[in-house]
Amino acid sequence: MASSQKLTEYELKRLENIRRNDQMMAALKLHSKATELSASSKRQRVATKAYKVTPEKKQETEAPVVIRRSLRTRGMPPDYADSKGLDDTVEASAKVAKSSTASKPSPRDLGPLSVRDAYCGTGSDKVIIERILGVSKIPHKEFGVENGWGLKRSLDDSGSCLELGSLSLNEENIARVVPGRIMNVRFIPCSDRRIIVVGNKFGNVGFWDVDSSVQGEDGIHLYHPHPGPVSGISIQKQSLPKIFTSCYDGFIRVMDPQKEVFDLVYSSDDTIYSLSQRQDDMQCLYFSEGPGGLNIWDDRAGKCSTQWNLHGSRINSIDFNSENSNLMATSSSDGTASIWDLRRIPADQPNPLKEVSHKRAVHSAYFSPSGRSLVTTSMDDTVGVVSGANFGETSMIKHDNQTGRWISSFRAIWGWDDSYVFIGNMKRGVDVISPAQRRTIFTLQSPHMSAIPCRFDADPYNIGTLAGATSGGQVYMWTLG
């Protein structure tokens, strides 16, 4: 009694509820029923222990369930993540989508697509069609003479034709050309007009006519010819007005302004990662397909004339030497960049003339304007420069290339001679690397820069005109101020 007096009112109420519940369970005989049920379930488990229950087979059309697991739990080294950025995430998503659907692409997707059906911009696209046709009719002008730079420099001239401090970014030379992340940017080669072409991750191809003079027009024209990310754009002066584009979903199309169509050139179930052309052979397309494969599409035969397996993983870029078009450079996620002689590539066991090894994926490899050097860009935070007799000398220059998942990988390009290499940085600027000094010697910066420039192209007919594209769909164009 003394102990009960020490209990609080709440505790006394709790004890009373417990006693009343026990009385109710005893009246309903719930304890004995629970004991009998427990014994019955044990006997049933013993009786059915020897039988194996086969789960019901899932339908083949059911989409696969992708379980996210870390590299550590999968037993993979951290370096495996080099090539698993957003590009590969898009690729994996595309493969899952292809495997999980039984429907085939419609005939409209596989055949010619009119520019009217592909156009998704505002207003009319007749203006840009007419201007591309007009560019193709302009007589070819030799680089370096008609642009007011005097006589062309000799390849042995160690000086540069560009003063870095004179490059500037004006507010009117900034435009949002496409929605989303830009994967490729190219100038249409023309000495009298500046037209920039970009491809994004949504399959859009956008045109920016920088010199548009039509009142009320911003010069932006947007098309949607591809179902997936645009992996390559090839524009050659000799093949204008045709513009070739490829996408991760395995399609290559050519925009033919004369016929006003995006015609289908090639389709595949594998991913197409890059696209290029030789300057002396406009009838052939060189493109990478699948894990390490490179194909040559011959337009005259209407089929692939040659197929090689050159790398152990995807080929990220293809480039040709300006002085010797038989020399081809490839970069790969297998950690190597290679120089090949197209005349000496055996089908059974291809061997490169030169192989440059990096510790991580290599995203680009481009020849210099003279053809005497090669620049590579790798996720191992280096920019490689290969030069010398038979490309025998290799220098590795430190540069932060960690762009993360949501920004396109950096790809270093040459300027207008062999003096400078341009590459973006994570501080919204453009680093200028001197191969001779093996270091970054200058950085292009501007208060107008609001995003990180990732992919670049130098206008081949206007020295000092450099286009940088971002993951937000913007294009910045530096000019001589």
From TrEMBL:
KW Ribosomal protein (keyword) present: no
Q: Does the keyword DNA-binding apply?
A: yes
Q: Which key words tag this protein in UniProt?
A: DNA damage, DNA-binding, Repeat, WD repeat
Q: Which PROSITE patterns match?
A: WD_REPEATS_1 (PS00678), WD_REPEATS_2 (PS50082), WD_REPEATS_REGION (PS50294)
**GO terms, biological process:** DNA damage response; regulation of DNA damage checkpoint
One GO molecular function term of this record is:
DNA binding
Q: Where is the composition biased (Low complexity)?
A: 92-104
Repeat region (WD), residues: 308-343
Superkingdom, according to UniProt? Eukaryota
User: Entry's Gene3D superfamilies?
Assistant: YVTN repeat-like/Quinoprotein amine dehydrogenase
InterPro entries from the UniProt entry: WD40/YVTN_repeat-like_dom_sf, WD40_repeat_CS, WD40_repeat_dom_sf, WD40_rpt, WD_repeat_DNA-damage-binding
In residue numbers, the region (Disordered) covers: 33-111
Task: Name the protein family.
Answer: Belongs to the WD repeat DDB2/WDR76 family.
This protein's name: WD repeat-containing protein 76
